[in-house]
């Protein structure tokens, strides 16, 4: 069998409500090249597996699904099993609760990297929605988003949705510490960028969900855990690159520690936080009157 041009790399666990929409968004892609769909199914306890089998039966030549008989965890599912099974020249990321919205997404990103060999990855804008919360959606990337990202840009903030990642399938070996990370996609970005900068496409082509059953969460405890994990990851990345980017990493760590302190203050002293916001609102009102 000829090597596919693109491997669509998906991991899923308990995504019964969302996986069909995810797969349909892949199958709607219009390309002038072949692509495969590689899925790591991590022994879901709901109907996710049954849905996958239905799609697999309908498109037997399109899917390569790894069914785990026991739950192996998100990191092992993604990087020990599913990623190595991807045979394409390029790899497009997608998680089982997110979806693509542009039928030419793969074609656009393929052409972007084919025409610009100096970049190791390209990404695009994404809409972030709160699945179980009454909060408005927003665009992850603003109008001032940098078009080219280097390492120093990467540590500044979260600016790459997983479902927007499209990168060259390098024969790279992941470091041992990688498999213990909570933020797998972020860790992967730090590894990939050593092969070349990232190119940003302005097109809005995917939706990223925030909800209680996903990896991401808006709860305070989850925010603190996430920040702590990123700080630990930055230390590992700093050692991995032999302190090459130490200044940028230390600056990012200082900013993350400041954010974590503010989150902890809001948690421990909610009345103080309410008072601070009330004073800020009053000052703004007075300023507007002046």
TrEMBL record:
This protein's UniProt keywords = Transferase
Where would I find the Glycosyltransferase 2-like domain in this sequence? 7-170
Organismal lineage: Bacteria, Pseudomonadati, Bacteroidota, Sphingobacteriia, Sphingobacteriales
Matches recorded under InterPro entries? Glyco_trans_2-like (IPR001173), Nucleotide-diphossugar_trans (IPR029044)
Quote the protein name from its UniProt record. Glycosyltransferase involved in cell wall biosynthesis
**Gene Ontology molecular function terms on file:** hexosyltransferase activity
Q: Name one Pfam family in it.
A: Glycos_transf_2
């Amino acid at each position: 069998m000829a090597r596919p041009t693109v491997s669509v790399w998906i991991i899923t666990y308990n995504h019964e409500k969302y996986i069909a929409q995810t797969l349909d968004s892949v199958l709607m892609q219009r390309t002038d090249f072949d692509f495969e769909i590689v899925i790591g199914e991590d022994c879901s306890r709901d109907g996710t597996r049954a849905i996958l089998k239905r799609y697999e039966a309908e498109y037997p030549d399109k899917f390569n699904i790894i069914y785990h008989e026991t739950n192996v965890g998100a990191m092992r599912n993604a990087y020990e099993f599913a990623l190595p099974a991807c045979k394409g020249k390029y790899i497009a990321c997608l998680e089982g609760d997110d979806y693509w919205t542009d039928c030419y997404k793969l074609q656009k990103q393929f052409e972007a990297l084919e025409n610009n060999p100096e970049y190791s990855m390209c990404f695009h804008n994404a809409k972030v929605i709160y699945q179980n919360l009454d909060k408005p959606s927003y665009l992850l990337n603003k109008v001032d988003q940098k078009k080219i990202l280097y390492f120093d840009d990467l540590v500044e903030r979260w600016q790459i949705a997983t479902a927007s990642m499209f990168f060259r399938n390098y024969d790279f070996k992941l470091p041992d510490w990688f498999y213990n990370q909570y933020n797998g996609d972020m860790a992967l970005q730090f590894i990939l960028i050593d092969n070349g900068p990232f190119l940003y496409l302005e097109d809005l082509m995917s939706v990223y969900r925030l909800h209680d059953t996903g990896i991401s969460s808006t709860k305070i405890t989850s925010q603190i855990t996430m920040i702590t994990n990123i700080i630990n990851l930055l230390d590992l990345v700093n050692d991995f690159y032999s302190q090459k980017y130490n200044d940028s990493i230390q600056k990012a760590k200082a900013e993350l520690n400041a954010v974590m302190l503010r989150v902890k203050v809001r948690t421990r002293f909610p009345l103080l936080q309410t008072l601070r916001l009330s004073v800020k609102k009053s000052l703004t009102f007075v300023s507007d009157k002046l």
